[in-house]
Amino acid sequence: MSKIPILAEEDEPRAIDTHAHQPTAEFLEDAGGEMMQDAARKFGTDIHTWDYEAMVEEYHEVGIGRTVMLGWDAETNTGNPPVPNDYVAEVRDDYPDFFVAFGSVDPLKDDCIEEAERCVNDLDLSGFKFQQIAQGFDPSDPEHDELWSTIEDLGVPVVFHGGNSTLGAGSPGGRGLKIKYGNPMLIDDVAAEHPDLQILIAHPAFPWEKQQLAICQQKGNVYMDLSGWLPKYIDEQVLHYAGTVLQDKVMFGTDYPMIRPEKWLDQFAEYTDFGEDVQRKILWENAESFLGL
Ligand SMILES: [Zn+2]
């Protein structure tokens, strides 16, 4: 039973998780590799895998009706295989009412433009996810401009990673990953030059939350989600903005399977005091309009 009354009031599970990965070996073991083991230690979780049947049931039980499942391709920078876009599309096709599927292209690969077009035109994927730290690229670098123009023309949204990453955390050299690429100011450039590109900055962008809030305020095409952080640990100013000036731009997300939906929602009930109108916006209304559902 949800501690958030508006979730229990709906006839059908209504909330939307804007940020989830696969609870399977494709993400946790193959694409994740050693840097994922580091992250799991950081989150205090054991890496074990389970299937989509169990995942969907877990979500439905707490009032979540849809989830954005993200692809992953950081092959050039990490050497790990991608979570293939075809696989993400297949999972979506198995649960078409539940999953909204976002693909991933590796901006350092020569065929990234063609792959982006194939994702939308052939696989019917609904958007793209970039993890600049794992993928090792600066989104504001002009060499990536054609990719942003292509996605802008395709008319689908993008999720960029925001802030530090737990991937590689605690390892010597952080396994070579550079956190500067998670600075949201690099995304501000992309947003300015591509006003029709709808951008969601995933996670409170620690330690650059203030920059992130400024960008979301100033750029009509930039949004953010609260994934990757349990509400107990989210910066107070972020929560204040989420309930006031940015209440039409902030969305719920977990970062499944590292953070589980029941725990996130319980803390959302415990550590925030938003009115029901703001709760509805954060938990599903803003995502419905951003995703065009
Ligand atoms: Zn994530």
From TrEMBL:
Annotated protein name in UniProt: Amidohydrolase-related domain-containing protein
Residues annotated as domain Amidohydrolase-related: 16-293
Domain of life: Archaea
Keyword Lyase: yes
Organism: Halogranum amylolyticum
GO molecular function: carboxy-lyase activity; hydrolase activity
InterPro entries for this protein: ACMSD, Amidohydro-rel, Metal_Hydrolase
Keyword match Lyase: yes
CDD domains reported in the protein's UniProt record: metallo-dependent_hydrolases
Keywords annotated in UniProt: Lyase
